[in-house]
């Protein structure tokens, strides 16, 4: 084993002379064990009784947790009670029995990171799941870490272009901003995500697909990304993965984004969906006996969301992570606990409406219900004036829609409403954008300005 690898292992406290505990209970989606004293967050390997675990640490090729050990036998210590500790498996409990040995592998989960990951599709442990061969990685980074301290955060003062004209001009995002995309199922989240990934001006793009159906992953790559994974890393945990994989898929993608940020890049992080990530924690929390609260979500879900979302942001003098999180809102109900909690953490929200898709307006962004909280700090007063005017005229149209439709409104009664009616077609056309159309920021701004000035 090369010296550098040994050093790396020692750096991460890898266990070079393991001692073993054993499983004393196998539950539906969790193990109980004793015999060793791990800490919460430690990664353990479960070795069927009768099998040797010694070969595990001898792999001298790669410092990659995923390839050192089969994910099937890995778990994480999620709670400790006296001598007993609880393990959530990265895979499933099937095939394990009481008496199987438990080895503490690693204090806290590290995942491999490297520039070789660009263009690849990986699982939450950093293992490639595409057909492009193995990944050689010699650096690793902790999966869980605290968000940037408030004083290290840079001010968000630069525009982050996404190439979607309604977002760039009316919901302008800044480098380091955290945005939510709130929508019901089938409204157009993945399509909008694809447009943002293709249109965003970012050095590196990290996409986390959490809890999607397996068939949606290739579909997302071919349909929404046009099969172009340049400077892009896709981290995937599908709905048939264990709750732990789905939970850590999101953290894994964030850790990768942080690695690229630390190299001085502006990174786009985009995750679909926060709701499925929260559901994974709901399964873990409930199995541990946490009390269910609103919609069955245990309290740990609400503390987990800021732990993930707050890691995005701008680090002064280093780089930035601009994040978009999709949140599934059932029945378009924005008061869902996950939607509510996400809105309170994020710096803005883009709401997609089913009504708009019924009218053929794509992307179906409900401009009046959406907002970017930092828009005032990043755009010029002139631009802000046009944004306000657009919102005002568009809301007048919406308020008086029925009157206008039935012909009850007489032109001339309200100058502002007349102006709104005159600009209606242009405003609606401005909100529409074809999937493969890309608008650069200045062009979007000029178009907004032209419509408002006419
Ligand atoms: N910009 C667009 N232009 C034209 N059609 C669109 C657009 N966005 C979405 N659609 C249509 O809406 C359908 C659903 O879109 P999409 O898969 O993006 O929704 P979703 O919200 O991700 O769905 P799910 O909840 O199932 O993940 C697409 O198959 C497509 O037909
Ligand atoms: Mg989708």
Uncertain residue ranges:
54-69
Beta content comes to 15-25%
Largest sheet: 9 strands, mixed
Q: If you average the pLDDT, what whole number results?
A: 87
Tell me how many strands there are.
19
Helix-strand category:
alpha/beta
What is the 3D shape?
elongated
Give the assembly state of these chains. single chain
Number of distinct helices: 15
* Ligand inventory: adenosine-5'-triphosphate, magnesium ion
What Rg do the Cα atoms give?
A: 25 Å
Helix content range = 25-40%
Structural summary, described in words:
With 454 residues, the protein is of the alpha/beta class. 34% of the residues lie in helices and 22% in strands. The chain has helices spanning 3-11, 65-68, 165-170, 189-199, 216-224, 243-262, 274-287, 299-309, 337-345, 354-358, 375-378, 381-399, 401-405, 415-431, 441-453; strands at 20-26, 31-34, 43-47, 74-81, 84-89, 101-106, 110-113, 121-122, 139-142, 159-160, 173-174, 178-183, 204-212, 232-238, 266-272, 313-315, 319-328, 348-351, 371-372. The strands form 4 sheets. Strands 8, 12, 13, 14, 15, 16, 17, 18 and 19 form a 9-stranded mixed β-sheet that branches. Strands 1-2-5-4-3-6 form a 6-stranded antiparallel beta barrel. Strands 7-9 form a two-stranded antiparallel ribbon. The chain starts with a helix and ends with a helix. 46% of the residues are buried. Adenosine-5'-triphosphate binds next to helix 4. Magnesium ion binds next to helix 4.
């Amino acid at each position: 084993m090369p010296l550098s690898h040994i050093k790396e292992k020692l750096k991460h406290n890898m266990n070079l002379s393991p001692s073993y505990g054993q499983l004393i209970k196998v539950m539906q989606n969790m193990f109980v064990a004793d015999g060793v004293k791990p800490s919460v967050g430690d990664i353990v390997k479960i070795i069927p009784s009768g099998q040797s675990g010694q070969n595990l640490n001898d792999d001298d090729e790669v410092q990659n947790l995923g390839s050192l050990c089969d994910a099937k036998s890995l778990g994480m210590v999620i709670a400790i009670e006296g001598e007993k500790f609880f393990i959530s498996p990265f895979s499933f409990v099937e095939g394990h029995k009481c008496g199987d040995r438990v080895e503490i592998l690693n204090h806290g989960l590290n995942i491999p990171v490297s520039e070789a990951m660009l263009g690849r599709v990986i699982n939450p442990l950093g293992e490639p799941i595409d057909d492009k061969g193995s990944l050689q990685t010699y650096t690793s980074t902790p999966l869980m870490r605290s968000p940037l301290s408030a004083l290290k955060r840079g001010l968000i003062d630069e525009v982050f272009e996404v190439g979607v004209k309604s977002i760039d001009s009316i919901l302008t995002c800044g480098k380091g901003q955290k945005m939510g995309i709130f929508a019901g199922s089938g409204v157009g989240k993945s399509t909008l995500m694809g447009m943002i990934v293709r249109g965003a001006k970012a050095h590196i793009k990290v996409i986390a697909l959490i809890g999607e159906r397996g068939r949606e992953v290739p579909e997302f790559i071919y349909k929404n990304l046009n099969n172009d994974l340049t400077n892009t890393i896709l981290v995937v945990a599908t709905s048939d993965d264990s709750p732990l994989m789905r939970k850590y898929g999101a953290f894994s993608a964030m850790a990768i984004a942080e690695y690229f940020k630390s190299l001085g890049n502006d990174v786009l992080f985009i995750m679909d969906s926060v709701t499925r990530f929260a559901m994974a924690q709901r399964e873990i929390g409930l199995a541990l006996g946490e009390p269910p609260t609103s919609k069955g979500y245990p309290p740990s879900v609400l503390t987990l969301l800021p732990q993930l979302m707050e890691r995005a942001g701008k680090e002064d003098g280093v780089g930035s992570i601009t994040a978009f999180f999709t949140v599934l809102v059932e029945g378009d109900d924005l008061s869902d606990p996950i939607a509510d909690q996400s809105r309170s953490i994020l710096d803005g929200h883009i709401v997609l409406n089913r009504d708009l898709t019924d009218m053929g307006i794509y992307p179906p962004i409900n401009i009046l219900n959406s907002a970017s909280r930092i828009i005032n700090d990043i755009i010029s007063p002139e631009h802000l004036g046009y944004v306000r005017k657009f919102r005002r005229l568009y809301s007048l149209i919406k308020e008086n829609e029925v009157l206008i439709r039935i012909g009850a409104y007489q032109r001339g009664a309200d100058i502002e409403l007349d102006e709104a009616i005159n600009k209606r077609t242009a405003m609606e056309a401005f909100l529409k954008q074809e999937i493969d159309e890309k608008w650069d920021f200045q062009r979007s701004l000029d178009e907004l300005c032209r419509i408002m000035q006419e």
